[in-house]
Amino acid sequence: MDILPQELKSRCTIEDLKRDRELAFENSIKSHNYNKKIYDLHREEYKFEVGDRVYVENGNRLNRKKMDELRIGPYKILRKISNSIYEVDAGHKKAESNVYHVTKLSPVRVGSNRTINLIYSLRGWEM
Predict the structure, then answer these.
(1) What SS3 state is found at 27?
(2) Residue of 61, 69, 107, 60 whose CA lies nearest to 88
(3) How far apart are CA 101 and CA 86, in angstroms?
(4) If both were cysteines, with which of 9, 71, 74, 121 could 108 make a disulfide (CB 3.0 to 4.6 Å apart)?
(5) Is 95 helix (H, G, I), strand (E, B) or coil?
(6) In this protein, which residues make up the domain named Tf2-1-like SH3-like (predicted)?
């Protein structure tokens, strides 16, 4: 049992199939490059140092309630384990629970010193 009708089989040659496959591959590469360009427009590459203050993403997005905080913190970075893994002083007893991937962290951006002073005083930190 054949899927292609006899008329299409007779017109289709190996060269046609090779050319169509190459064209499909080129179009796939073009599409990939376009999608990468659009994605990279708003991508920020964060590089944190020890002592920086960061917010940590609050758990799994599917398990979060509607009004839960998206990020918790700010917390201090204690140690850089690798280019993408950081140990954060999040207050967990288990050391493994304080280790986060860079995609789960976002830097503290402060509009004024007054805001940062308020955060420090609420947390009991020293400047």
Answers:
(1) helix
(2) 107
(3) 6
(4) 74
(5) helix
(6) 52-108
62 touches 90 (CB < 8 A): no
Q: Is this structure's pTM higher than 0.85?
A: no
As its CATH architecture, domain 53-123 has Roll (2.30)
- Write the CB contacts of 23 (distance below 8 Å, at least 6 apart in sequence): none
107 beta partners? 54
Q: Which residue has the higher pLDDT, 69 or 27?
A: 27
pLDDT tens digits, one per residue of 98-120: 899 988 898 887 664 556 666 66
